[in-house]
Amino acid sequence: MDFTYSEEQRMLADSLRRFIDAEYGFEARRKSARGGGSLDRAVWKGLAEMGVLGLTIDSEYGGFGEGATSQLVVQRELGRGLVLEPVTPSSVMAAAVLGAYGSAAQKQDWLPAIAAGERIVTLAYLEPGTRYRPEAARASASRSGGGYVLNGTKSLAWHGEAADAFLLTARVAGSDEIALFLVPRDSAGLSVSGYPTMDGLRAADVKLADVAVPADALVGQPGDGLAALDLGLSHGIAALCAEAAGAMEKLIEITAEYLGTRQQFGKPLAAFQALQHRVADMLVQKELAMSMAYVAAQALDEADPAQRRRMLSAAKVTVAKAGRFVGQQAVQLHGGMGMTDELAVGDYFKRLTMIDPLLGDSDYHLQRYTQVMAA
């Protein structure tokens, strides 16, 4: 896989960076986050018009049919700008699941709307007490007439408040199968309770109380749930790794600029060799994270599921560790100002810290990596 930017990718990256700088500055992001939302419809429309939301969706459904390398380019820029909007859960993860496992009707109904920014779909697979293990789902799907009745609770649905539909996992009654259902937000018996997360994003708990869905709400076959979910999570992890690398890149630029302007003992902090070494260490970790983001993107084309999981888990753990290091160093190098809420450094630190628990924390992925290697 060639990760050298093509001319089209370079133009996309430049256009996206200019758009974020112009329409999504620090103050605008802060205002959106503190206003209790993480979806600016004007920004969302702009991302759709630039082709970001339909980047990997097939052209027959209004997208551009690009691959993992182009997605990495976009996610890197979104990370630099700390973009709040639900690009990863909807346009990356949900689009990948529906593109691979959705029926013809599901694809036609939802993929063009996702690409155009008209609809948002997110995954809801976590449950209280199950940690990151989707196979331990307790939500149930009972067959009823020609469809199913869903009951249970999902937690920490990423951008659940903004979603028009959820890709929900549930255990089919009378079997060990985990199925995946596409459930509209306005379904009777479905309720959503949203709340903020540490990094300014939003999550939600989704409760299902006798939610009746037709048979065509099933995504794939009843036994395809875990495989379909794993595909979505794989694309999400690759996107997160690229986003984190972009955030580290921008945070280092912010820190270097601060060290160049802050005076101590009559000269800028950047003149002190000890601080130069710490910035150099940050750069090393950022480059390591970027390299592992390439590994994660390459994993999406890996035919062997075990090898794909190994590569993604290795990337996720390495990037999370690098993000913590870069974030902590940036806060410390800003001195007392780094501990205040006045500078952007705090926002980047929080986001990089939250990269670890999203889509499986380091403990989970280390265990998964070990299991794959042992097998």
Automatic annotation (TrEMBL):
InterPro entries: Acyl-CoA_Oxase/DH_mid-dom (IPR006091), Acyl-CoA_Oxase/DH_mid-dom_sf (IPR046373), AcylCo_DH-like_C (IPR036250), AcylCo_DH/oxidase_C (IPR009075), AcylCoA_DH/ox_N (IPR013786), AcylCoA_DH/ox_N_sf (IPR037069), AcylCoA_DH/oxidase_NM_dom_sf (IPR009100). Residues 6-118 form the Acyl-CoA dehydrogenase/oxidase N-terminal domain. Residues 127-205 form the Acyl-CoA oxidase/dehydrogenase middle domain. Keywords: FAD, Flavoprotein, Oxidoreductase. Pfam families: Acyl-CoA_dh_1 (PF00441), Acyl-CoA_dh_M (PF02770), Acyl-CoA_dh_N (PF02771). Residues 223-368 form the Acyl-CoA dehydrogenase/oxidase C-terminal domain. Its cofactor is FAD. Belongs to the acyl-CoA dehydrogenase family. This is Acyl-CoA dehydrogenase. It comes from Cupriavidus malaysiensis.
